[in-house]
Please model this.
Amino acid sequence: MKIAIYFSHSGHTKKVAEYIAGKLNCETIRLEEEKKRRGLVHFFVGGFKAVRGLEEKLLPFKDIGPYAEIFLGLPVWAGKTCPAVNFFINHAPLEGKKVHVFFTLGGDDWQKAGEQIRSMLSAKGALPGAVSAFPNFREFNETCVRTADDFINTVSKG
Ligand SMILES: Cc1cc2nc3c(=O)[nH]c(=O)nc-3n(C[C@H](O)[C@H](O)[C@H](O)COP(=O)(O)O)c2cc1C
Model:
C-alpha cells in the first residue's frame, strides 16, 4: 500500500503532496512540528537545525506499518533536509520500506539534500527510490504538474 507523507511549513510541499496522492489515489499524512514557530524565529532556528542535521520533534503521527511504499515530501532548508523530516526518518519504522522523495525549494540547489536523504534512508534500512524536486517554487503551476507526472511515471516503471 502507498502513502504520501509530507512536512510543509508554508503550504508548497502540501500542494505537491496532494497532487501526487490524488494521482496515486492514496492517503496523505501531514507531519506537524510539536513547537510552532513563526517568522524570523522559525527561519533562524529552522535553518540552524537543518545545517547541523538536527531534528525537530513531531506531534504523534499515524502508524505507517501497513504502508510498504512511501512518497516523502519536504522543503529544502539551508541546502539540506528539514529538521521535521530528520525526526521522521530517525524515529519512524522505515526498515524494508521503499521511500521516494520529493523536495520543494525556493532556489534550485537540491542535489546535496537528495544525497543526504538517500543516505539517511539507507542507514535506517529503508530502500531509497526515486528523488524529484520542484525548484523555484512559487505556485503549483503547469511545470509542477509535468514534474509530478514524470516522477510518478518514473516510480511506476520501477
Ligand atoms: C529555514 C528555511 C531555510 C530555507 N533554505 C532554503 C535553501 O537553502 N534553498 C532553497 O532553495 N530554498 C530554501 N528555503 C525555501 C523553501 O525550501 C521553499 O520555500 C519551500 O518550497 C517551502 O516549502 P513549504 O511551503 O512546504 O514549507 C528555505 C526556507 C526556510 C523556512
